[in-house]
Amino acid sequence: MNQLKANQAQLEQRIADACKGATIRAVEKAAEMTPVGIANPLAGTNTRSGSMKQDWAAKSKWEPVKKGNSFVTELNNDMQYASYVNDGHRMDRHFVPGLVINEESGMLEFNPDGTGGIVVGTKTAYVPGIFMVDAAKEEYRRVLRQELKDIGDVFK
To answer: How many CB atoms lie within 10 A of CB 146?
Structure first.
């Protein structure tokens, strides 16, 4: 126990490094699972541009902060649509006034005078979630266990 107390700073640094590495891998896992691109069947505004995927790295805090006896890091994504992609969501059919299909091009257009309109929606009433956050948390735990499994050997 005395030897452990003498090496406390080294131990804390090792734990902080393991937390940082695990958080980086969790951020990577969440980004890997985030859909991107128009060809993707879940392509929405934030998934088409790739903004939601990039936001994991931009908003997460992987530098550990010591609070009491704990080290805290954060997995964050503040894109408005992220929770819907993660958890799943309902898709209701609804009427959009002024939205029409151009007979020549077949493209959706908006009538400036607001006339017309169509019912839009999806064939499925529910879009299942991808659960990126759950997978990222599990990856964090896996990496942290792996990094710290031999921590006792370091101080022998």
So the answer is: 13
